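Hey,
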Amino acid sequence: MAHAYQQVLEDLTRAIYAGRYQPGDFLPTVRDLADEYGISPSTGRQAVNELQRMGLAYSGYVNGKRGVIVRSRGRTDFHATDALRPGRAGSGTDAFTENARKTHRVPAKRFTMVMRVPPAHVARRLGLPADTIVVERTTLQLLDGEPWSRERSWYAPDLAAKTGLDSPHDIEEGTIRRLAEQGFRETAHRDEVTDAAANEEDSADLGVILGAPLLVQTRTAATDTRVTRVTQTVRLGGRNRLIWETGNEEGIDAIRRQLAEGSKLADTVDDEAPTDGYRESTEGSEL
């Protein structure tokens, strides 16, 4: 059955890259694939799972119907330091929404808040005893309806009560602004980035198969005197590129202008030469 599985996988992959299946389209069901190719449902499922592992499709809903759906292609750049820039303009939206709108993509969020004992590494970062109940705020972030990332932040109970972060509602302007407004302006951040394999929660939230590659960013933030939060963002592996920018506003703007001009020149050259698909896989819209 290995040959049959490979044939199904190759056919579906070609169809996606050829545009027969557009982002947001449903792929054939496992039963339909079994009937079309004369294979077992398990062989069809193996091919579909591999498409999800490759980042070409995800399990989810469109208009109330569940199935395996074609993902948009290319990488999405996320400027991880944008929300921390001193000159960041005030707005009524958080960093994820701001950045999504810059790229003309439609953001959506699903928010939950609970109070419970955090993972041991989070309690250590917050400087709390291991059995302390903290505020845990989780946002599932979607782009154009696709599950894209999950952001989860933990707050010490006293800080959450003082700032209103113990409210069971999303804070549209973002928690960084809320903390600053309440007298807890963050002045330092430590980021740790690693890879991980999707577990059951990741699979359900992000529409990936178990073991799919993920990119995990853990940020510990503080004022001059105390740690304010620990935020862990889980993103799709192979679909995102994290960008850190440090320095003054003028220098960062100069770098961005030069990169934009370089991209325009590269596009002009690319228009005159054949493409092998590599550029699309390594460059994407900026988020």
